[in-house]
Fold this sequence. Notes:
Largest sheet: 7 strands, mixed
Shape: globular
Order of helices and strands: EHEEHHEHEEEEEEEEHH
Helix content: 10-25%
Number of domains: 1
Bound molecules: glutamine
Structural class: alpha/beta
CATH superfamily: Class I glutamine amidotransferase (GATase) domain
Amino acid sequence: MSSPGATRRLDWILSPEPHPCPRGTGAGLAVGVLALQGDFREHRVALERLGCATREVRHACDLVGLDGLVLPGGESTTIHKLMESEELVEPIRAFHAGGGAIYGTCAGLITVARDTVEGYPPTLGIMDIVARRNAFGRQVASFEADLAVKGVAGAPVCAVFIRAPWIERAGPGVEVLAEHAGHAVAARQGSVLVTAFHPELTDDARLHELFVAMIRRRDGAAGASEAGTGAPGAAEPDRHAARRAQPAAIRNR
Ligand code: GLN
C-alpha cells in the first residue's frame, strides 16, 4: 500500500531490458530497432529470442556498432518526419552504405524504397523498389494470409497485413521472396530485406532468422543460409568487429 499522492513508475510501458537467448542463431550480433514510432518493442522481443543483442535507435550515435537495423511498421509519414527532426536520414543511409543490414517491415518497406507511387513521404532510397502505400485497403481491411516465402523453410508463414503497402515495381537487382494476390510483398536486395507484413506480431521467428542469416552471410560466416532449418549459428562476435567501425557520417557528427 502506498500513501495518497505517492507515485509509482509504470515500468511496463518501457521497452524490455535485453535478455538475449545466448544460444540462438543471432547470438553475437547487435541489431538496432528504429524506435521513433511504431511497433519497435515487438521486434526487439523477436530478435532477442534469437539471441541478438538489441538496442533502440533514436539518435545517430545509437547506430554505432550495430550489425543490422530494423525499421518497424507504423506510419511512414510520421517515421520520416521524426527521422528528419532527429537527423537520422543520412546516418541510416551511411549505415547501409557501410555494410549494415536493414530489415523494413510495412512502413519500414516504404521507408527504404526508392520511391512511392504517391510520391510521399520522402524515402531513404536504399532499395530499388517503388512502394504503393495502403495498397490492400484501409485499416478495416487488415487481414492475415498464409504465404510461402522464398528462403523460409517449412510451413507457410502466417503474414499479418495491417494497412499494408505492396511493391508496385522492383528493379532487376531485387529478388521477390513472396507474393500475395499477384503483388510482391517480400523482397531482398543485397543487405536490405523488406516485408509488407508484420512477422513481429506472430510467434514465428523465421523472417527475423532470415534477416540474421543475411547479416551472417554478408560477413562470410557459415551455417545460416536458410531460415527455419533449426541449425543455430555459432556466436562469432569477432567476425563483426569491422562492421562496428563507425561509419564516417556518424563519427563526424
Ligand atoms: N499504411 C502505413 C503507412 O503508409 C503503414 C502501415 C503499417 O506499417 N502497418 O505508413
